[in-house]
Amino acid sequence: MTRKEEGPVPNSDDVAEAVAVLSAHAADVDARSRFPAESLAHLRRRGYLGLLVPAEYGGMGAGLTELTALAQRFAGGCLSTAMIWAMHCQQTDLVVRHATPQLRARLLPRIAAGDAYLASVTTESGKGGHLLSAHDALAEADGLALDREAPVVTGGMHADGFLITVRDGPDAAQHEVTLVYADSGDLKIEQIAAWQTMGMRGTHSVGVRLTGKVAPDCVVGERGKFRQVAADSMVPVGHLAWSACWLGAARAVFGQLVRRMTARGQKAGGPDTASPLVQERVARIRLDLELVSAYLGKVTEEVSQIRARGGRLDLPAVQIHLNTLKLAASELTFRAADRMVQLAGLATGYGTASPLPLERTFRDLRSAALNYSNDRLWTANGTLSWADRAVTLL
Description:
By secondary structure, the protein is of the alpha+beta class.
């Protein structure tokens, strides 16, 4: 794959093999609330950790269109694994676009080779997932010293490296946030909280405490100005990748449900596909998925074009579009899953022993509105709308 903003996705047979591996372990990962080690190992071996790494560092050199396409496919196999991978890609994009040349040279070849899975550390007790503030501070001590607690870190005990938000120093204001990279080998990593949740059980998003030191060239972006790299990379890539994952999970199970209904029909007591009520319910599910798919495609195109011309992503209209994508994807895919459960019925839709993973998908997608709370995004979009008086619709 050549290095360009939007190139071809990897070989379709290779992607199908990866989806099959993820799918084979998904039920056990959920049932045992365990990290999907086998699935991530496959993605490492096949080079998918390096999807966004430029070719000059050994990566695939792909862009955002490939990211959202693959996120959908992987989520159709296992949403937990897809989200782990998507958030790793989000961190990789930060390194590619904002790391120092020294850090890029050290880290990007390792990511491309599958040797470095990156986790994100942005949460803190007392502030939740609020991205642009921090309590724990950097200290200058023969390098940059960290002592950072986070209540939720996806894959925190399995990561090879971390991108960590911290206050820029003991005297810095809470909004003066710095992003640093720390290799797991340079840290003491302690688990401080378990991950016991209704859904997304395989992300193993435990609480951790990280202590150690990093070199000055491990700062990603300017010190104290994390807001800039968040607006350029973390927020847009996160919203795009998460939304693609949620859509992919809902889309895959809807396809399974449609195939099952049309194959079985009334032969085994299944829903009557000729019934106007059943047809309307199917149409409403399809509508939700179509709307998310279309909006995801347009926002991906908008962000890619702005990046290609070196433009800014922190403009009010663009921020509204990104927030709207996350809101729409999280709410409409869950609504679609809810409607699928109702349509499939008690045994097939709600039962844990069902041949369709509807019950698991329903539980997993319930987390979407909580993964960076939609409440924040609704109020943010209301405020941003005052600034976009031209009402710049996508």
